[in-house]
Write a structure and sequence with these properties.
about 230 residues, mainly alpha, about 55% helix, globular
Length: about 230
């Protein structure tokens, strides 16, 4: 699928689980962001890219898990921060999957719709005006994650700031409260429930952006080729 805004795909790759495949793409990622972002935003992301290039892969992976898999407050499942255990999550996931399907984006069996790297990859295929409208809807959650990562001194915060810059979205004045406490045991217990299934015909194509709200499980995924 052709990319309308490759910078979203590059940012998606930086938020994926660190892998050798992702590290091989770092020169392309850096070049795409240098041309797709302003100097301040691309410069802010540069230290994270440099760390990926020279850091021990095991350490990078361990840090990723510690940040994004062991605390609900930093979950990359965007609507974890909105609905938590709400019963509304099933229909919301179907709606989001339908939006992807209508646009021709195929979801891997191990990926769930509101995983942020997948969402950014989808945005990369859309006209910039449409992508910006979708980021506005997700703005409070993205701003909350950016703020929490900044408080931790994490270089990943720059990726969220770059998404805002690319979408011309100002940081939110307030952030949603976490749906559950930062408790790994509670998180593991919640993730034992059966996942909602997706596939052709699972949802109607006509879905509105304002219904794209849910909580789904986090899944790791390797970065995809940015020139697909």
């Amino acid at each position: 699928m052709a990319l309308e805004t490759p910078a979203f795909a590059a940012l998606s790759a930086l938020l994926a689980y660190p892998s050798e495949a992702m590290r091989e793409q770092l020169p392309d990622i850096e070049a795409i962001l240098a041309s797709g972002l302003d100097a301040d935003a691309s410069g802010a992301v540069a230290p994270l890219i440099a760390e990926f290039a020279v850091g021990d892969l095991y350490d990078l992976q361990e840090r990723y898990v510690g940040l994004f898999d062991r605390t609900r407050r930093l979950s990359l499942n965007m609507f974890e921060h909105v609905h938590g255990e709400s019963r509304d999550r099933g229909q919301a996931m179907v709606d989001l999957a339908a939006l992807y399907e209508a646009a021709g984006l195929e979801i891997d069996a191990q990926e769930l719709p509101d995983y942020l790297p997948l969402f950014l990859e989808f945005l990369a295929t859309r006209p910039l005006a449409e992508a910006r409208a979708l980021v506005v809807d997700a703005g409070p959650v993205l701003s909350a994650l950016e703020g929490r990562l900044t408080e931790r001194g994490s270089l990943y915060a720059a990726v969220f700031a770059a998404v805002r810059t690319l979408a011309a979205v100002e940081p939110s004045a307030s952030e949603p409260e976490p749906s559950q406490p930062d408790d790994l045991a509670a998180l593991d217990a919640a993730w034992e429930e059966e996942a909602v299934r997706f596939g052709p015909g699972a949802a109607k194509a006509e879905c509105a952006v304002d219904r794209l709200r849910t909580r789904v499980r986090a899944e790791r995924r390797d970065a995809r080729r940015l020139n697909a």
